Amino acid sequence: MSPGRPMTPTASPARLTVITGPSGVGKGTLVGRLLERHPTIWLSISATTRPARVGEEEGRHYFFLDRGSFEQQLASGGLLEWAEFAGNLYGTPRRPVEEQLEAGRPVLLEIELEGARQVRRNFPSATQLFVAPPSFAALEQRIRGRGTDNEAAISRRLARAQVELAASSEFDAVLVNDDLEVALLELEQLMGLPSLA
Ligand code: ADP
Ligand code: 5GP
Known about the structure:
By secondary structure, the protein is an alpha/beta fold. The chain is built from 7 helices and 9 strands. The model is unreliable at about 1-15 (pLDDT under 50). It binds adenosine-5'-diphosphate (ADP) and guanosine-5'-monophosphate.
């Protein structure tokens, strides 16, 4: 363990939860509802080189960085995990996660597959959940319905979705987001949270 990184994966075994699943499956929607109901959960804000979508705010949805700044943060060990997704870089700032875990707060990471794999190696005790769509057609409908991505981005995201779906068995549990309310209750159960329904 290098100096300045006192956090060990076993220090807060059950408190780190990773949520992964194909783009458009409804992770953001589910997590948003979960946080409304359980405000003690701390959601990590990622860094990304993706341009902000309409309505997205710096520091609330992401830290929007240019590639140089992202690579600098990566090189200095400032990211807990990172990945390239659909042509952009995404990563989890390390220090805030460590601080929240040290403070005993449940921490949630909403990240893609490669990042989840890195977290699995470094925090083997983290709970890893995979959100799946009821069908691939429903996934495509949701991505298109969201209306935030152009055709090229939609194609990249759907291609990547096939790879992510094929890896779902690596996760501790697969949660099918068909009916949102049902999925929310299941998510609460899987995270060991009291259900407020
Ligand atoms: P992700 O964060 O996984 O990329 P979003 O949360 O942005 O996905 O959801 C993508 C779209 O699907 C949004 O328009 C959202 O309103 C919709 N959506 C989310 N969950 C459901 C659901 N259970 N049934 C139908 N539509 C959903
Ligand atoms: P979006 O561009 O739709 O916001 O996110 C694209 C993908 O990047 C999603 O699967 C999302 O979960 C993932 N993602 C967001 N932040 C991070 C991060 O910090 N690390 C990794 N590995 N993936 C992330």
